[in-house]
Amino acid sequence: MKNYIKSSFGLLLLVIGLASCEYDGIDPLTQVDPGPDAGAPEINIQYPNEGSSIQVPEPVASINIRFEVVDDIEVDNIEVLVNGNQIATFDDFLDYRIVKEEVAFDQVTNGEHTLTINATDIAGNTTSKTVNFSKEPPYTPRYAGEFFYMPYNGDFMELVNIYMADETGSPAITGDSYLGSGAYLGVADSYIDVELNEEDLGDEFSGAFWYKVSAEADRAGILVAGAEGSGASENRQQGFRLFREGSAEEQRLKLNVGTGTGESWNDGGVIDLTEGEWVHIAFSITPSETILYFNGMPVNTGEMTGAIDWTGVEQLTVGAGGETFSYWDHKSDVNSVLDELRLFNRALTQTEIQDLINASSVTLDMPFDGDFKDLVANREVTQVGSPGFAGESVSGTNAYAGAEDSYLLMPSDGLLSEEFSTTFWYKVNADPDRAGIITISPEDEDNPDAQNNRTSGFRLFREGNADEQRIKANVGNGSADSWNDGGVIDVAVGEWVHVAFIITDSESRIYLDGELVNTGAVSGGVDWTGTDIVSIMSGAPRFTEWGHLSDQSFMDELRFYNKALTQEEIQAAMGQ
To answer: Three-class SS of residue 560?
Structure first.
């Protein structure tokens, strides 16, 4: 009992001692007057950004709206509206000066949308901030008569009608694509079927795609749109069959078309397998003839005795003869690769086919006409800092305007190829005196605060003074880097300059206004190891050690290509 009383008394003394902070040197807590309210809250909408475009196959999409509200005294309430309709409110905050919130919104339909954030502090000051964004179909036909498009960028979806193909066996997607991030890869006993709509099928018809043939199977179906018949000959009286036959050295592509009571043959042309290259294939069908094209050139013409007959044709088989054309062993196209398949309800001309080929080499197209969209693909573009628009342009309605600590960032999927080109218009601002322009570089894990790994990818940048700026490039081949000292832009002239940068399997080239200004040797060509992101108008975050940070210059009409452009092609691009 005595021990208990002593213990209780000791605890009482301890509490008194702690309560009286003056005995242990700790000052008591005192309330600090936060001072007068200095102004209204500040709002930073992190997503969606102004001009953001959502492109998904679903008719209604979901997004996560992210924003931050900062006030010098206290945030009282926040209101979130989409198209004028309130979707969320907040009035209880863990941190009442810095509020970070995320709101899920699952009713984004096709068309234009407006997001508004209203924030009010305890003094009654209110701030409102608005951004415009849109939801677009995943693909809008780009060519007259185009009713079917399959890019094979990760799936077997047809993007005009938003239809997912039916799979037989185990057809595959390969990263060895001509354009984009994927292509169709033939697998034994496997193919896909895609619905065809009757209203898309008429007296004229065309197809086009990129093709890299394998002779592992010495014959195969490539594209077949047929109807069921009671015999082999009757199977060929409707629709068409594009197929191949040959040897390990060469394969002949042929076309057969049904006219209802008969059939037409086109013996096509031969692909040399030893070259192992992509070939652009196109064919057109009219009531009088069929034409088969390789790389934009006609290789053979077949006579038609009437219009193609579509009776009973309901689907297109890709990568095999399918259910209607396997009796001559034209089965799966094993290990061949097919990309960028388009169908048309009209007969394409040779010029139009060449236009398709030219367009297929463009992997990125950013005109900067009031937004940061890529017109080629549904590419995620992240705005770092506050990049803006110039209020002027070489083409279109606007151009990119650089700002301090600001640039664009995107994944590099589908943009990297053995040969590479980029072109753009550029009006230089020499302050700061050096900056990154385009950076596709690996992370420097050994120097996280001074990134400068130059063994792969490339770095296009500028250096100089207030009077002149030199455009330079550095390219990594996997084990070393190569320098190209480029050429000089006269800052005082203050004009737009067309810049082109080319990488081949042996060199890099820099052109200014269509003229070659310098060449650099690149032994073995560019290596892309670890280059998973692209920075536009900055060296950050992967090329910072030497101060090549954000470029406050103007840029317009940025394009990437999956081939090495010739000087003639560069000069032609200048006039587009």
So the answer is: strand
Q: What number of CA atoms fall less than 13 Å from residue 211's CA on the CB side?
A: 31
Distances (CA, A) of 546 to 336, 368, 483: 46, 28, 15
Number of domains in the chain: 3
pLDDT band at 21 (very low <50, low <70, confident <90, very high): very low
Cα(155)–Cα(158) distance, rounded to whole angstroms?
A: 9
| pLDDT digits 0-9 by tens, 493-541 | 999 999 999 999 999 999 999 999 999 999 999 999 999 999 999 999 9
For the cut 50, the answer to whether the pLDDT of residue 1 exceeds it is no
Tell me which amino acid residue 98 is: I
Q: Which of 359, 393, 427 is the endpoint of a domain?
A: 359
Q: What is the pLDDT of residues 293-307, one digit of tens each?
A: 999 999 999 999 999
Round the average pLDDT of the chain to a whole number and report it. 91
3 state DSSP class of 103 = strand
Amino acid at position 167, single letter: E
| Cβ neighbours, 10 Å, residue 346 | 18
Domain carrying residue 162: 146-359
Using alpha carbons, select from 267, 282, 271 the residue that is nearest to residue 351: 282
Backbone angles phi, psi at 337, to 5 degrees: -125, 135
Q: Judge if 169 and 272 occupy the same domain.
A: yes
Q: Determine, yes or no, domain membership for 163.
A: yes
Place 58 in a pLDDT band, splitting at 50, 70 and 90: confident
- Compute the distance between CA of residue 200 and CA of residue 207 in angstroms, rounded to an integer: 13
State how far the Cα of 529 lies from the Cα of 527, in Å rounded to an integer: 6
| Cα–Cα distance for residue pair 328/320, rounded to 1 Å | 12
Q: What is the pLDDT of residue 33?
A: 54
Cβ within 8 Å of residue 467, ≥6 positions away? 430, 490, 491, 492
